[in-house]
C-alpha cells in the first residue's frame, strides 16, 4: 500500500507541482508532494504553468519548490519522475530508493514528459494533457 507519493522533475516549478496537484485531486486519501532534482528552492510554480493549470481548474497556489534530498526521497513509498534520466539522478542521491522510482508516464506508454519551461503556452497545455492522463493512470492503480 502506498501512502506517500513524491512527484519529481528538475526544478520543481513546472511538471512536478502540476503532477502533485493532479494526483492529489484524483486520489484524495494519498499524501502527495513534489520535489526537484535541481530545485529552484523556494520559488513558486512557473507563471505560465500556473495559468494553464488554473484555466483547467487546478490551482498551483502556495507551491514552493524544494530539493529532492535523501530524506525527502526516503520518506516516499513511490517516486514518480518525468524522464528516464531522472531515475539515474535519484539513484545517485539515494540509491536505497531505486526500487520505488517509476516514470510518471508508465501507464500511458512509458514516455518521458518533456519540460515546458520557457516554451509556448500551447506546449504547456500539451504537457498538462500528458500529465493529466499519466496521473489518471496512476490514480486507477493507487485508489484501490
C-alpha Rg (nearest Å): 14 Å
Shape: globular
Q: Which structural class matches the secondary elements?
A: alpha/beta
The SSE string, one letter per element, is EHEHHEHEH
Which segments are poorly predicted (pLDDT under 50) over 5 or more consecutive residues? none
The amount of helix comes to: 40-55%
Mean pLDDT: 96
Strand order of the largest sheet: 2-1-3-4
Count all strands and give the number.
Answer: 4
Report the β-strand fraction as a percent range: 5-15%
The number of helical segments is 5
Q: Tell me the distance between the termini.
A: 9 Å
The major pleated sheet works out as:
4 strands, parallel
What's the topology here?
Elements: E1 4-9, H1 15-26, E2 31-36, H2 47-55, H3 70-74, E3 78-81, H4 84-93, E4 101-103, H5 121-142
Parallel strand pairs: 1-2, 1-3, 3-4
Helix pairs in contact: 1-5, 2-5
How would you describe the overall organization of this protein?
- By secondary structure, the chain is of the alpha/beta class.
- The protein has helices at 15-26, 47-55, 70-74, 84-93, 121-142, and strands at residues 4-9, 31-36, 78-81, 101-103.
- A four-stranded parallel beta sheet has the order 2-1-3-4, with helices on both faces.
- The termini are close together.
- The model has no long low-confidence stretch (mean pLDDT 96).
Amino acid at each position: 500500500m502506498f501512502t506517500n507519493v513524491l512527484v519529481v522533475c528538475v526544478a520543481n516549478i513546472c511538471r512536478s507541482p502540476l503532477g502533485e496537484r493532479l494526483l492529489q485531486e484524483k486520489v484524495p486519501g494519498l499524501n502527495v508532494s513534489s520535489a526537484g532534482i535541481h530545485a529552484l528552492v523556494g520559488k513558486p510554480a512557473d507563471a505560465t504553468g500556473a495559468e494553464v493549470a488554473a484555466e483547467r481548474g487546478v490551482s498551483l497556489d502556495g507551491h514552493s519548490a524544494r530539493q529532492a534530498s535523501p530524506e525527502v526521497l526516503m520518506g516516499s513509498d513511490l517516486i514518480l519522475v518525468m524522464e528516464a534520466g531522472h531515475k539515474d539522478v535519484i539513484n545517485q542521491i539515494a540509491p536505497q530508493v531505486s526500487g520505488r522510482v517509476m516514470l510518471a508516464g508508465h501507464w500511458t506508454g512509458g514516455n518521458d514528459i518533456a519540460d515546458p519551461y520557457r516554451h509556448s503556452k500551447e506546449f504547456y497545455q500539451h504537457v498538462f494533457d500528458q500529465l493529466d492522463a499519466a496521473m489518471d493512470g496512476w490514480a486507477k492503480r493507487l485508489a484501490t
